[in-house]
Design a protein that fits this description.
Elements lengths: L12 H17 L13 E4 L4 E5 L4 E3 L6 E2 L4 E2 L4 E16 L2 E14 L4 E5 L9 E7 L4 E8 L4 E6 L11 E10 L2
Antiparallel strand pairs: 1-2, 2-3, 4-6, 5-8, 6-7, 7-12, 8-11, 9-10, 9-12, 10-11
Length: 182
């Protein structure tokens, strides 16, 4: 059992090495289960749940974000084609440090002048161009595509063969991946 408030100026010199060795051992193992006066912000590895925890001053809490944030992507015209009347199935993201993991599934209507891209707003600002996995259904079975950032705030879904999306209802896009945030 290590007390993180020791040693102090009044500690016996024989107790100083014991106290320091206890702290070093606890930190090396990331195991503070029997320690007292643990500094707020200390991080440990919880081998039971396989997660990192942070000491908040009174209890261990998950050190990584667990909240998934929903968002509603906005679509803009590309080459005169619009993606409207959308029926959003899923659009969520989670930010972990500088990484943003997100997933979108949306169904809509393409109209206007046919284009090979559908553009949507990114959930967070990106630092540079990113390429992600995308799928689409253009009136038939799902097919692979690509999702490429067109700016630090927008992505474009492209058909893999470069052809235009057909103008009709029931067009589906799926995008999954992660990017580096600003």
């Amino acid at each position: 059992m290590t007390d993180f408030n020791t040693p102090t100026n009044s500690s016996l010199y024989t107790a100083v090495l014991t106290a320091l060795n206890g702290k070093i051992s606890s930190c090396a193992k990331m195991d503070f289960s029997s320690d007292t006066n643990i500094p707020t912000g200390t991080v440990r590895y919880d081998s039971t749940n396989k997660i990192l925890d942070s000491w908040n001053g009174s209890s261990w809490v998950n050190a990584l974000p667990t909240a998934v944030t929903s968002f509603t992507p906005t679509y803009t015209a590309v080459g005169g084609m619009t993606f409207t009347s959308t029926s959003l199935s899923y659009a969520n993201y989670i930010r972990m440090g500088k990484l943003c993991f997100f997933h979108i599934v949306d169904t809509g209507t393409t109209s206007g002048s046919a284009s090979n891209e559908i553009e949507f707003a990114s959930p967070l600002t990106q630092v540079s161009q990113q390429v992600l996995t995308a799928w689409y259904a253009d009136g038939g079975s799902a097919a692979p595509g690509a999702c490429i950032s067109s700016s630090t705030t927008k992505f474009r879904v492209r058909k893999a063969d470069g052809s235009n999306f057909a103008l009709s209802t029931g067009r589906i896009i799926w995008v999954s991946g992660f990017f580096i945030t600003a």
